[in-house]
Design goal:
single chain, mainly alpha, 8 helices, 0% strand, rod-shaped, disordered C terminus
Amino acid sequence: MMQILFAPAIALMHRLTYPKKFALIGLVALIAIAVLFVNLSRQLQSQIHLANDELAALEVIVPMDRLVQAAQQHRGLSSGVINGDASLLPKREAKTGEVKTALQGLGPILPASVAASEEWKKINEEWNLIAADGLSWTATESFAAHTRLIAAILQLKVDVADESGLTIDPNMDSYYLLETAVVKLPSMLERLGQTRAKGTGILAKKSINDHQRSISASSWPRFPTPWLPSM
């Protein structure tokens, strides 16, 4: 079967002189090398493209983290002011400007699809409402509005990471690292931020009821118990 398959090639080689045989073999080898080179080049280009997308996403995610942190601090300061600590008002006003600046700086560097999304529009609308009317709300209303805003920003950050391929990195090590940095760690820090805001309000009000005490205790993040070998 193999002889029949290669019979035309064998017949051709018998008709050629040695220089032509070597030239033909060299040509076939060159074609094979060229095919391998093209495939390797495509793989490298794909990896470079993915790396560039990830770097571009990180340039957006870092400012988003700063925005989240500023919004969390604004939530805590607002809680303190609304609960009666007027000394926190200047800090709250300064933090208001910081959040506004962070939002304005983030818009131009967002991916076009994200910048044009309804989610980004709602984030700006939510913040404008907080900045304009936040001090006229109750502590519960202010806390809820800030928390919605922060949750929306965190979700938008995940969307940016998904679009750039950060959260679908093919390398296992970097995948878990990025998954922790983009999703798990911010979620844990947000729960700590909520506890801090509630604590600031309690300190400003100088009182705590049983309901607040139970909510504060339940809002602490749960860390997995480390495995210990049996003795």
